[in-house]
Structure formats: structure tokens, C-alpha cells
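Hi support team,

I submitted a single chain yesterday and got back a structure, but I'm not sure I'm reading the C-alpha cell output correctly. Could someone confirm the output below corresponds to the sequence I sent? I've pasted both exactly as they appear in my results page.

Thanks,
R.
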Amino acid sequence: MRDSFQPRFESLRTQIAARAAARGVSPAVLNVAAFAVSLLALPLIAREYYAVGFAVFLLGRLIDVFAAGDAGARQRIVLDGIVCASVPFAFALADPTRALAACFLLFGFVAVCSVSEERVRVTDTLICTVAFAIACFAPSWFGMIAYGLGIA
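Hi R., thanks for writing in. Yes, this is the structure output for that exact sequence:
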């Protein structure tokens, strides 16, 4: 199933990226837009608007999917790392008793951010997004999720 989905997804992504490029929107601009939208989740989660925060985070990540390309790859890696780090930070701001779990998760993210293989980073980002979704819809589980991801 994955083999049949991948070409369709890449075709759709390429078409959308081409339309954006035709309008003068470069992948670098999409990277920055995805970063800015995703970062808006930080104050929302910190104020305990978890579901809205996750929706905004997810919107930013979807924009990021269409920004994928060889141009600005390093910029994308750095901005993605900052975005992923912002979610545990936001959970710690929402409830300071989660700070140790958030720090442990951030410690684990350092290892993820140092991996240069694209396939590994994509998989880790997908796992983190699913974990963030669970944490946003069940905030009391954040500690368990953070320690689990930090160990993984």
C-alpha cells in the first residue's frame, strides 16, 4: 500500500510546489511560513488550548511538507528542530511540574536533530507529531509520552 501511496503523494506535492513557485513562492519562503505557523502553537499550548494548539502545529507541518526540496535543506532542518522543541517547552510553560519531562524530551531531540539521513528524520518527525497529538488530547499523559520519546 505504501508503494502505491508514495508516488501519488509525491505527484500532488510536486504539483502544489510548482503552483507556489509559479506564483513566486520559493521553498525557502514556505519553510519560513511553516515555521511561523507551527510556532504559533507554543503560546496556545502554554495557555492550555491544547486542541487548537495542535491544530495550528499540524497546519504548519502540512505547509512544511510542501516546502520540501533540495533548496534550503539545512534551513529546513534547523527550523523543524526549533518547532519540535517548542512543543515540550509549551507543555512545561502550561504546567511547570512537567518541566523535567520536557527537558528529558528535549535532551532526546538533540540526538534526533543530529541525524543527517532524511528518511530517519521524517520517521522521527511523524512519531513526534503523533505523540504531540496524544499529549494535546490527553495532557495528563505528557510526562509518560515525554519520557518514552526521550528514551526512544
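A quick pointer for reading it: The mean pLDDT is 84. Let us know if anything else looks off.

Best,
Support desk
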